[in-house]
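quick one before i forget lol
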Amino acid sequence: MLLHQTFDKILDLALEEDLASGDMTTEACIPPAARAVAHAVARGPIVVCGGPVFERVFAKIDPSILFESHALEGERVEMGRWLWTVRGPARAILMGERTALNFVQRLSGVATRTRAYVEALPPGSQTRITDTRKTSPGMRALERYAVRMGGGKNHRDNLGSAVLIKDNHIAAAGGIGVAIDRARENAPHTSRIECEVDSLAQLDEALAAGADVVLLDNMDTETVRAAAKRAAGRALLEASGGITLERVRELAEAGVHAISVGSLTHSAPSADIGLDFE
């Protein structure tokens, strides 16, 4: 479920960016009383995401605009499918068109890319495909929602939601063992301790210090397989760094519990969606 309270602020900023000086073209060409019906249409195969945002954009411009959905969130559709319809004052629909499309193209693009990674897992796999904090500024809540609609899972939401000791934390703290010990002492007792490692020697250190989760950073598949054997269930293992679609199956079969993929959000191409007026 996506509550509009989680994204209203960024919608307001986007609409201000586009409409701060009005809409010269629409105001010059379209009579105030003109009415219109417009359909959002998939221009290619996509995983649908962003209907609540699409609806909310138009509602903010003119609450009298009627909205109708033709596709479920997370549904895969083919080219030509109607996704959503808006009916109401033509001026308001034209004013909201670009902003509404920008959001749903981005979100559907993230959902579509995520679905490809999820479907690359071997059948019956329990390995999770997760996102990262490599999100567009201000868009994290929406992009994380799109990952879920694509079938993926969310990693930590922000720096305050989980302990993840990375290479610079290790350097600043003076070592893996020291960092994990301090985290165990100072973090809430409900928090798991995750530590990033980039070698099997560091893995041994993290396991000896009692890490609950170990992030295997930029390791090739053979090293990941060796790491899984060494861990032998003592910690959850997450593979990250340089994850391509082609590597997903082999990493899952190597024994990791999660594969975190920054490109789900930082490199997903926008889906092609248009708004066609009747």
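fyi The chain has two domains: 4-118+268-277, 120-266.
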